Amino acid sequence: MARSQEEIEELSICKDAQIMIEKAEKDGVVTVWDRFKAQQPQCTFCKQGLSCRNCSMGPCRILPGKERSLGVCGANADTIVARNFGRGVAAGAAAHSDHGRDLLETLDAVANSDTQSYEIRDVEKLIRIANELGIKTEGKETLQIAKELADLLLEEFGIKKGNIGFTMRAPEVRRKLWDSLNINPRGIDREVVEMMHRTHMGVDQDPVSLLLHAARVSLSDGWGGSMIATELSDILFGTPKPVESKVNLGVLKKDEVNILVHGHSPIVSEAVLTAVRDKNNIEMAKAAGANGINLAGLCCTGNELLMRQGIPMAGNHLMTELAIATGAVELVIVDYQCIMPGLIPAMNCYHTKMITTSPKAKFPGAEHIEFNVRNARTQAQKLVEMAIELYKKRDKNRVLIPVEPVPMMSGFSNEAILQALGGSLAPLLDAIKSGKIRGVAGLVGCNNPRRKHDYCHVTLTKELIKNDILVLGTGCSAVAMGKAGLYMPEAASLAGPGLSSVCKALNIPPALHVGSCVDNSRILHLCGLVAKELGVDISDLPVAGSAPEWYSEKAISIGLYFVASGVYTVLGVTPNITGSKLVTDLALDGLTNVVGACFAVDTDPHKMAELMINHINKKRKKLNLPV
Ligand code: CUV
Ligand code: SF4
Description:
It holds the Pfam family Prismane. One of its GO terms (molecular function) is 4 iron, 4 sulfur cluster binding. It is an enzyme of class 1 (oxidoreductase). Its cofactor is [4Fe-4S] cluster. With 627 residues, the chain is α/β, with parallel strands linked by helices. It has a 6-stranded parallel β-sheet. The mean pLDDT is 97. It is 49% helix and 11% strand. The longest helix is centred in the first third of the chain and has 35 residues. The radius of gyration is 24 Å and the shape is globular. It has 3 domains: 161 residues, Substrate Binding Domain Of Dnak, Chain:A, Domain 2; 156 residues, Rossmann fold; 210 residues, Rossmann fold.
């Protein structure tokens, strides 16, 4: 049965989404919301983390306090919940870090002159990062430095004596705390593997011990795999600087060949961009009757292109099927992560084709055209030609581009923020000290059909900036803010008087787009810089984090590395841990005594804002700053 207008408005706050949900229904496209409904009621054991299928004596479903309070092996609820949580963190950390490894292999190929598809675009940053990690660069050729950096970072993944190099970006007190807790991450792969080992039947049964290791795994992501992904992407594709672009489904063009890139790594999408900009290809598109070739992004690979190249953003996680339902998309080129298999039946309703490019992520029903460091240019060329051919098959009568795009600013890397501040952190610190900016909040993570699409991201951001808290956004959260117009300097009018005056002076928005999910490492780095400058721990800073509409295992890892780094983090979706009081109490409270920060959970963005503001005020008081 078709949804009423009211029902549709309950699903998303976005006009483009609302219009397209209706069109999708008419066109017979099954969406994430339809499948979510079909899954109800969802398993309450799994929801609480109380089901285990780690071995073949099970699966076991635990009812604490009842006869079935233990699994076949004897594991109790605390163990099972902690194990499940730990595996989620490991999967998330693995996803980010394996993405980082791909960038590393690309850098390695460039260093060995083994590719014509990629180059080093930011030599200054290459040298800066190499020096930071202890590589002597004087008098050396660029490619030699790249080679040494790649070799050094490759070691961070595997066997290494000591700790992950970028953890030195955290203040010394924090590193000492990690050491004393034995959670300072060693090799990136090692921590993930150890979590798989510990959660095998009959290994680590102690929930506290499991959670501490989960923290170590997450730290190897935030200060390791993700940070490597960010820094190497900057070196290879350019460090982001402020750039204007556009966002929402209105970025699709009626009269042009539309290509969407979806996934996470910039490796494929950057190669596609180069081919899209090629003059011969544009001529070819014109010969096919189109006005040009339009490239737009979805999700995090979209964020990567938006941050560095100003490529427009079509939408976030829950918009991916709806983008196809416009009927205006020729090709969706994907790499990995957050790509719903539901896109395949959706595209089959139109002339649209989905192309998978990574040997790690194949989708039955999609065409697989594999990219590697050597063939990326030629493969990208092939895809652009394919898109132009498909344009000829587009049924113009079924095209609906629902709205006009919204302008947004992007590109706020830490380097760009420093530059906007005139080269040093001092003006930011002064603004924080005086209370013009009361604190900084990182808003990150996905959409989830459990929550009204984008509602929490946008409402929470508005509350925070109104209270003079500068918001840094990444991932799908960032896309939501952009669509709501919060990424334009004019949005300063929605901010409190202090933040608004700072924004006007610097001509920046009150919420800043700092990148994709791996770019949460930029926020960690910034926290480290500020804490060192003030001579305090990260947990002393007036900062807070939130993942208001998260769904992904990667978001669990992100949330945990923020907490383990000392940043209080408010979740808008309850993690699957409520089956264990011990684990839940630890997450929501006890961790504060261990790492100086904990999680909070609330589904109401106004209450989430209150929690974050109270926390920031508490930290201000402790630092003797005006509240
Ligand atoms: Ni990595 S992880 S839905 S695209 S933020 Fe978006 Fe961002 Fe979550 Fe995925
Ligand atoms: Fe059941 Fe224990 Fe096996 Fe898990 S590890 S499935 S609780 S027997």
